[in-house]
Specification:
It comes from Paralvinella palmiformis. The protein is α+β, with helices and mostly antiparallel strands. It is built from 4 helices and 6 strands; from the N terminus they run αββαββαββα. Among the domains are: 28 residues, Double Stranded RNA Binding Domain (2-Layer Sandwich); 50 residues, Double Stranded RNA Binding Domain (2-Layer Sandwich). The relative contact order is 0.12.
Length: 117
Amino acid sequence: MPVMDTKPDLIATTIIYIMVKVRNRNTGQKYQCPLCGLLFGYKWTLAAHCRQHKGKYPYYCPTCDKGCASTSYLKRHLYLHGGSTDFECQTCGMQFYQMKELTDHIKTLNHVDPYKK
């Protein structure tokens, strides 16, 4: 397996964790992780989360062999190898592949939303 810089993956994982924590403040999350108590709105997201606790990553990146717990996580990871980062935080310069990720980042880190007047 090739040696690679894990910093982008660490950032992505941290963002996902924070987004889940923020989302859990809302009602309607009916699937709870038996190991850490996080709540999920869908059974498949809970299943992928539990695979991470167990260290099971059945979906592999064809470029760097990184294992992912779900096809969604793999798809997000694949952007690191050539996806365009079209959305940038005006406060800290962090770049995102989707507008929703930027919006969640702004809300989570208490940045002032540049799109609101």
